[in-house]
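Propose amino acids for all 379 sites.
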């Protein structure tokens, strides 16, 4: 009889937890797997909504909470916090002693966990590897892939990229994007309900705004978001804006959003529950900013997405994405096009909504022995 395998998932933001929640619930419910979460980063900060409470409310088991310095976001702070998380993850993983560490994406907490797991002899399974972005996220994502033993990619293109990077094809499985799983089922709120919640007019145009800083372009974030808000207001959009993540440059974006909110130009929100967020994405006339949710999830609703700047550069696109630079003329052209188009076909290159079942199957059945820790490039 095969022993139950223990899986540790690292979560640092509302975004990664929302994308992985259904997968984590299925891991937790599997008789072949035992789940533990290592919680860190933005989850533990009141500045970002103290979203660890959402994890606690979900009933998913937390193995450890790894604290970081909570201060004005900057590049040096991000780097120091990776070091703090590395130490914390080593301590937590020595206690938890998982069979596999499960990571998603390209953030610093995932990099720290991958380094810790590698040195503790624990194989890493990396979700969403092999994708491009053209910013600091891309080398971090690829670094995590090179530290990982197993790869659970969203698309065939990503699989091919990992193979070209020297990752063994036998250790790569195309599972799809876990953020698509259960997406339409949890988008239950109507346009009228959303408008009632946020005091918007259902007959008016609604824009969902989510704009994160790009570390290499931190100095321009405030001016960029101000220009975006001005363009949306010129086209008479009602703007529902979510606060940015904790990367360097986010404080300037937050200041502009706070000021616009005080002037009643936008509705600014620190955090939305996943179901409310995807319901708003479904019902909005437009999604705008530079969030990966616009690149991946929004296509399942056919929502037009104006993707701004370099943060999602080079990622695979669905047909609903309109790429622009953060200039007045480019924004105006994109908004005019989106308003004329209204809606796109509901097709999505990132999968069929069954990633979580494939991930559970993989984690339950993948070979784990001494060879699991042998990492050889194949090129």
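Proposal:
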């Amino acid at each position: 009889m095969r022993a139950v395998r223990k899986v540790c998932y690292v979560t640092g933001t509302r975004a990664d937890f929302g994308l992985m929640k259904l997968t984590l619930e299925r891991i937790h419910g599997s008789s072949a797997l035992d789940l533990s979460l290592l919680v860190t980063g933005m989850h533990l900060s009141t500045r970002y909504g103290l979203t660890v409470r959402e994890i606690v409310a979900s009933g998913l088991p937390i193995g450890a909470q790894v604290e970081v310095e909570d201060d004005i976001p900057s590049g040096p702070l991000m780097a120091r916090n990776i070091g703090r998380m590395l130490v914390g993850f080593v301590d937590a993983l020595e206690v938890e002693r998982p069979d596999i560490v499960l990571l998603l994406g390209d953030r610093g907490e995932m990099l720290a966990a991958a380094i810790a797991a590698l040195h503790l002899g624990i194989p890493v399974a990396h979700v969403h590897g092999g994708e491009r972005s053209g910013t600091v996220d891309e080398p971090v994502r690829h670094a995590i892939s090179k530290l990982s033993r197993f790869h659970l990619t969203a698309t065939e293109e990503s699989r091919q990229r990992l193979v070209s990077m020297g990752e063994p094809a036998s250790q790569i499985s195309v599972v799809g994007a876990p953020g698509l799983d259960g997406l339409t089922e949890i988008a239950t709120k109507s346009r009228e309900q959303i408008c009632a919640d946020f005091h918007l007019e259902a007959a008016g145009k609604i824009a969902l705004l989510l704009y994160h800083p790009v570390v290499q372009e931190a100095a321009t974030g405030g001016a960029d978001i101000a220009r975006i808000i001005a363009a949306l207001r010129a086209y008479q959009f009602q703007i529902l804006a979510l606060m940015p993540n904790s990367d360097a440059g986010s404080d300037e974006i937050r200041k502009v959003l706070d000021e616009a909110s005080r002037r009643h130009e936008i509705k600014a929100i620190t955090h939305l529950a996943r179901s409310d967020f995807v319901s708003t994405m479904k019902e909005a006339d437009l999604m705008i900013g530079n969030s990966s949710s616009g690149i991946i999830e929004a296509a399942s609703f056919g929502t037009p997405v104006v993707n701004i700047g370099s943060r999602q550069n080079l990622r695979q696109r669905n047909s609903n994405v309109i790429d622009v630079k953060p200039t007045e003329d480019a924004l105006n052209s994109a908004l005019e096009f989106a308003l004329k188009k209204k809606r796109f076909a509901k097709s999505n290159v990132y999968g069929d909504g069954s990633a979580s079942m494939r991930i559970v199957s993989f984690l339950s059945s993948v070979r784990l022995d001494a060879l699991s820790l042998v990492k050889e490039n194949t090129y």
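The chain has two domains: 5-182+353-373, 183-341. The first helix runs from residue 14 to 29.
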